[in-house]
Amino acid sequence: MIRGADVLLYVRTKVGEDEFHAPVWRETPVVVHNVLIGEPDADAVVSELQLAGKRLAYVLAIPKGDTHDWDDVTVEFFGRKWRTYGGVTEGIEELLPLAWNKKVKVERYE
Q: What is the secondary structure of 44-103 as a DSSP string?
């Protein structure tokens, strides 16, 4: 049976505003279980660099039923911090036979 890894997702909470009225955020780590961490092929890396200006490092498969916000957030796995980008791609939960129905792209953050 395929089983994913535990990933730390840093959930952002608005705690106020600075003197220029820009939001101030606090990031709280939350463990998300059973996340698949996949390595993209070379063509995907080159395409992302040319189209989005981002260096695609991994693609995460998010388990069904997860309700966290994965857009433009910090994640941590393999002892490093990464940043999601490009929005979440979601499939129809009932039509997918495995335990994952969302994908998100990740770039190096540190």
A: HHHHHHHHHS--EEEEEEEETT-----TT-EEEETTEEEEEEEEEEE--GGG--SSEEEE
Cα 49 from Cα 62, distance rounded (Å): 23
What is the signed CA dihedral for 26, 14, 20, 18, rounded to 10 degrees?
A: -50
Count Cβ neighbours within 10 Å for each residue of 28-59 and write b for 16 or more, e otherwise: eeeebebbbbeebeeeeeeebeeeeebebbbb
d(CA 69, CA 47): 25
Phi first, then psi: give them for residue 71, nearest 5 degrees.
Answer: -80, 120
pLDDT of residue 17: 94
pTM of the shown model: 0.86
Helix, strand or coil, per DSSP, at residue 26 = strand
Question: Hey, what domains does the chain have and what are their CATH numbers?
Answer: 5-16+23-108 (2.40.10)
